[in-house]
Model the fold of this input.
Amino acid sequence: MKVNQSLIDPLQAATYIVGGNAPRFVQELKNVLDQVDGNLVGDTYGSGKMIEDFQNQMAAYLGKESAVFFPSGTMAQQIALRIWCDELRLPKVAYHPLCHLEIHEQDGLKELHHIQPILLADKDRLITLDDVVQLEDNISCLLLELPQREIGGQLPAYSELEAISAYCRDKGIKLHLDGARLFEITPYYQRSVAEICALFDSVYVSFYKGIGGIAGAILAGDTAFTEKSKVWKRRHGGDLISLYPYILSSKYYFDQRIDKMGQYYEGAKELAAIMNQCEGIQTKPIVPVSNMFHVHMDYSADVISPILAQIYEETGVGLTGYLIETSDKSCSFELSIGDRYSKAPKDKLNEVFRLLEMRLKVNGN
Ligand SMILES: Cc1ncc(COP(=O)(O)O)c(C=O)c1O
Done:
């Protein structure tokens, strides 16, 4: 799939950027360090009060016995699946064909761990209980990604999730949550993070998506599981002598933003509704179920790109820096709502879509 990146500069020049929390500037780390006592002792190879306190805080928040801080979700999740495969002596797992491990990790699970993934469900829909029940192969672990990012951040009904969890428990299949955006789904489900995590044996959550930290992840589960994950973290070179810049930023931005997930979700629904009024534009899902969604447009990226660049300049509002060319007559992009959305004036936002619709009608065909 080709990606048209000609909107990167026009987006950077916009006064109001609609998606995300803040640009990835060094200032984001400076904000954190400005608040911290310079005599605070950092962590050393996974030990020390700072890392242990944060791990304990997150274990309690996720409702799990224990938690381990990792530099990346990529490392944490390959390790989680390896542990479950070793425990059940079966190097087979199941997950969605578009999950992060399958399409964004250069086959790390297969190359490093020799684990065979079974791809469940079609690319454009969620995994259902039926898919799991009809699985012909035995597996050690089922990984569910909530929300399923590559299809617009869709979510199963909570009852479906409960049924999948109960089935896996009954069959002795470990259930792992790719919760990169776990905090972001609580307003839709109207459940606490701990209630959702209780359905899973192991959970990974990210601190740089809705939380907006620098990088970093937590892997949580029972203590036997997390102790094994520490050994694998060392084997993977993930035990950096100090991870404190990531821990401090994770904690700082968690405290700043964890209570804003409802606001981001409402913002996503509001913006998607405005976009769906535009002819030739549809969001996926039509009504978002988290702070993220995909925007699909029935025009080629080459047609839309100069029109959007002009609109960013006129209104000062920027939507996206890239367009994925889904065909020669259509394109799409992803939006995640964070702090920046509420700063964009509503009249300017409405003006963006009024202009876009008008100009696509004139120039788009
Ligand atoms: C759904 C999902 N899982 C896992 C990851 C991996 O996280 P990391 O970038 O920390 O390796 C990402 C990152 O974008 C993600 O979106």
Q: What stands out?
A: The mean pLDDT is 97. DSSP finds 15 helices and 14 strands in the chain. The longest strand covers residues 330-336. The radius of gyration is 21 Å.
